[in-house]
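Hello,

I think I submitted the hypoxanthine job twice by accident. Can you confirm which output corresponds to this input? Input:
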Amino acid sequence: MTPTVAIIGGTGLTALDTLKITRREALSTPYGQPSSPLIYGELDGRSVVFLARHGLHHTIPPHKINYRANLWALQHIGVRWVIAAAAVGGIRADMEPGVLAFPDQIVDYTWGRPSTFFEDHLSHVTHIDFTEPYCPTLREKLIQAARELGLNARESGTYAAMQGPRLETAAEIRRLERDGCDIVGMTGMPEAALARELGLRYAACAVVANWAAGKIPGEITMAEIERNLVGGMEQIKKLLVRVISMLDEE
Ligand code: HPA
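Support: Only one job matched these inputs. Its output is below.
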């Protein structure tokens, strides 16, 4: 049976070690190759499909990810729900490293990324509604699952999608803060918009990996990010098991 739930894993979640893998499928799409083969398997007895956003060996930087191929592949196999795991920097005072966050809004600062399926061979110009960029139903289920598990999670927040791959300057973070952003990452767009264009029910589960630039003195190191991701991703794995059982009952 085709799974209805997909997990897109980001930094720190390139391999979902709790997944009992049943098969892999290398798809090609009209938009090229997805970041990784589709990895089918079971999480606690429920079937899911997993895609590694940065590739299986974490070699694809945020601005080079083929977001269109990734989302197209998931829709093509019949997925309905997409849970996107991602590492972010914390801007808001309660977004400290190690917590989970379920953003409810996005500000897109990325540029030059192929960001729509509605480009060529159109019979009419299409504008999707994106007032609520994440699926409210899926967000609600993630929040409920996190509450039931007693996880340390922030239930709303505005996600700033930055171009990367470098981290931000302190002044850029001050600007994002003035813009009302609470967390900052590099892969949330165009992923969320493309999912909406395809009618996929998409929500993000972010792990705060570090304080955003300038929030505390000193440099941000990859070692710090990786250290904080370990704990956060353990929480995400628990959350996934719980939320997938809730979605299965839909
Ligand atoms: N900025 C942007 N993306 C990130 C960060 C950050 O501080 N941490 C993890 N992903």
